[in-house]
Amino acid sequence: MNPRDLSAHTAYRAGRGIEEVARELGLDPDAMVKLSSNENMFGPSPRAVEAIRESAERMHSYPKASHADLVERLAEMWDADPEQVWLGNGGDGALDCLARAMLDPGQRVLVPDPGFAYYPMSARYHHGEVEEYTLSKAEDFAQTADAVLKDYDGERIVYLTSPHNPTGKEFTTEAVREIAERTDDETLTLVDEAYGEFTDSPSARPLLDERDDVALLRTFSKAYGLAGVRLGYALVPEAWADAYARINTPFSASELACRAGLAALSDDDHVERSVETAAWAREYIYDELDAPTWESAGNFVLAEVGDAAAVADAAQAEGVIVRDCSSFGLPECVRITCGTEEDTEQAVAVLNDAIAEVGQ
């Protein structure tokens, strides 16, 4: 027998890890800098690490209490009812929950190009079909209502990313409101705010009190440094929040993840340090990298370096891993995660040599 026809599906290609690259190139992994996956270079909060250690002896139990505790804490933080908080196995899991709740087979979604590969993947997994709206490089990837609505044709879900990966651009709350108002009543406007802690712009959260067709996505993978435990969540309108109980997989967020998330939420200093360092790194990259860049509201910067694959390979050979954006349809660009001050300075120096040698 064979699986169902998956020919329209694409495989998700994660950024390569330090250990993998170090083995391949014969480099010392401790001397390498990985700035390719938008991870928190300070790691998780020490409180989250301790919570994971303390939770280890309870791994025989299902995460009933910890799930409820984390949902209550997030609901309090966002001034929402607990039923409006949908935990998932990373932000990806929350996307899957929303696709299961919203999509009938054959219904279409509208995703950004360039954009996060898992939006269309999740829709197709749930038997949806995918259309795209274009964020134009010629217009500096501006995220406006018109940029989305010119390609809208009644899709069931419209995916917005703010700050956007890989460009760092943002939608204003007013633009999100306009998109929701100008799309059909049965279209969900989904705002992915995975990098929301890194921007000074406000969340689109107030729209959930105004409308029943806007939802938000958040994650613990970025500012909270918990990418490895896989924890994310959606904030959904109160009107249909109880759908989660019908579509959620049993215990989709683990005991370790929930306990780590609760502890991370208690460590404001760790998040503040991460956000402030990312802001410093963005400015350093803008000023010191020998390539044009786009102003970013995330913990990364997109740079136009010429032959991105060649530049990324050359930098990797010198121990610095950045993201070649060819997979985003931008073969002339690399995305550089904001690292610590030391790592950022090292990466920029290595990239400048690579750009001079093989880039532009």
TrEMBL record:
Its EC number is 2.6.1.9. The modification N6-(pyridoxal phosphate)lysine is found at K222. Its cofactor is pyridoxal 5'-phosphate. Pathway: Amino-acid biosynthesis; L-histidine biosynthesis; L-histidine from 5-phospho-alpha-D-ribose 1-diphosphate: step 7/9. Coiled coil: none annotated. The keyword Repressor does not apply. InterPro entries: Aminotrans_II_pyridoxalP_BS (IPR001917), Aminotransferase_I/II_large (IPR004839), HisP_aminotrans (IPR005861), HistidinolP_aminotransfase (IPR050106), PyrdxlP-dep_Trfase (IPR015424), PyrdxlP-dep_Trfase_major (IPR015421), PyrdxlP-dep_Trfase_small (IPR015422). Keywords: Amino-acid biosynthesis, Aminotransferase, Histidine biosynthesis, Pyridoxal phosphate, Transferase. It catalyses: L-histidinol phosphate + 2-oxoglutarate = 3-(imidazol-4-yl)-2-oxopropyl phosphate + L-glutamate. GO terms for biological process: L-histidine biosynthetic process. It comes from the Archaea. It holds the Pfam family Aminotran_1_2. GO terms for molecular function: histidinol-phosphate transaminase activity; pyridoxal phosphate binding. The keyword Amino-acid biosynthesis applies. Residues 32-350 form the Aminotransferase class I/classII large domain. Belongs to the class-II pyridoxal-phosphate-dependent aminotransferase family. Histidinol-phosphate aminotransferase subfamily. NCBIfam families: hisC (TIGR01141). This is Histidinol-phosphate aminotransferase. It comes from Haloarcula salinisoli.
